[in-house]
Amino acid sequence: MNKRYSSKNLLITLLTLVICAFTQVHAQDGKALFNANCASCHKIDDDLTGPALRGMRERWGDDKLLHLWIKNWSAAVATGSEYAKKMSESRPAVMNTFGSLTDEQISAIIDYVETAPAKKAPEAGGSNAGAPVEKDDNNLLFAIITLTMAVLAIVMLTVNGSLRRLQEAKDGVPSKPILAIYKNKTYIGIFAVLCLVLFGFFLSKGAVDLGRQKGYMPEQPIFYSHKVHAGINQINCLYCHGGAEEGKHANIPSVNICMNCHMAINEYKGEQLYTAEGKEVNGTAEIQKLYAAAGFTHGQAWDPSKAKPIEWVKIHSLPDHVYFNHSQHVVAGKVQCQTCHGEIQKMDEVEQFADLSMGWCVNCHRTTKVQFYDSATGAGNKFYSIYEKFHEDLKSGKLDSVTVETIGGTDCQKCHY
């Protein structure tokens, strides 16, 4: 009886281990946790709103204190740690709190940061100079681990079957005929279960990501480098996207806005530009495309009535049932453009930095602190002056901070019509 069911029990155990291992790896996927919680303010090797994170375990020297800092930075400062105090005073932006993260999840994030491939700078003058760094993807690793464990399970089952038959031959017990794999009900059942699990996983993942365009980088009619304009030349975002401060939409600048500068600037003399594929771009030729759209000839008087709109390809889109107001975030919330759009001042070609999912937005509302107006110093935002109870709780020490969620930022009607 034990011999008859030993192979099936072993098979079930191995299958369970494979599925559990696969699920556990995904549950503790440090990359996904990093992107969901940290990427809006931190990069691994470069400074963003917050400092570069690689080497943080060595810098802190105490995992417990580091975990406490991530969960609640003010509690870490309250321990008397000089390093925590130094970190709290070294940055103008306040560190968000992540009390909902478990120690296992924080460890997974730290492990991912410490082991992620280092960013490689492109070789000067090389054909790939200016090309984006290739993003790592753990899906292949998960697939290899799963396939390896499945092969191991089959090998162990085969060995177990051979040993069983040898023992039966030694005991004089007649052995059952060996069936081909495609006729063996056990193997067929395992294959069916694995297919069902994989199908369900990829179906659910595809359904969740439906309509999201993270990493979307369409080719534009004119090569416009935000790195040159917003980065090198320090042109304020609001000069071109004035609607971000005044209304719901950020607005795409008209040809007239471009021509305010390019009536005088007809030649590009900056560093060599490259597309995402590493192809060289002639900056002067791109300015000529702007002139063609504007109906302008350099050295002659310009008639704005001859201008025609440039057909820019829209990158960031939200579903029709989602309400998002740029001015409320930029003016009232004091949210920086880079929080949602990434390091736009370093992009030659713009891509969608975040997936703009409901979970991503809700997480931001849960961790972003409200900047209440302080009448004594004049700092903060008067938009939130009506929340007198929270003002009093902050003054009395009952609360150390108030997040957007606390003032109703996660209520359904805030974002949905």
Automatic annotation (TrEMBL):
Q: Does the keyword Cytoplasm apply?
A: no
Residues covered by the Cytochrome c domain = 25-117
For this protein, the record's InterPro entries field holds: Cyt_c-like_dom, Cyt_c-like_dom_sf, Multihaem_cyt_sf
Bilayer-crossing regions: 140-163, 184-203
- Keywords per UniProt: Heme, Iron, Membrane, Metal-binding, Signal, Transmembrane, Transmembrane helix
Please tell me whether the keyword Membrane is annotated for this protein: yes
Give one Pfam hit by family name. Cytochrom_C
Q: Where is the signal peptide?
A: 1-27
Would you tell me the protein name for this molecule? C-type cytochrome
Organism of derivation: Polluticaenibacter yanchengensis
Upper lineage is: Bacteria, Pseudomonadati, Bacteroidota, Chitinophagia, Chitinophagales
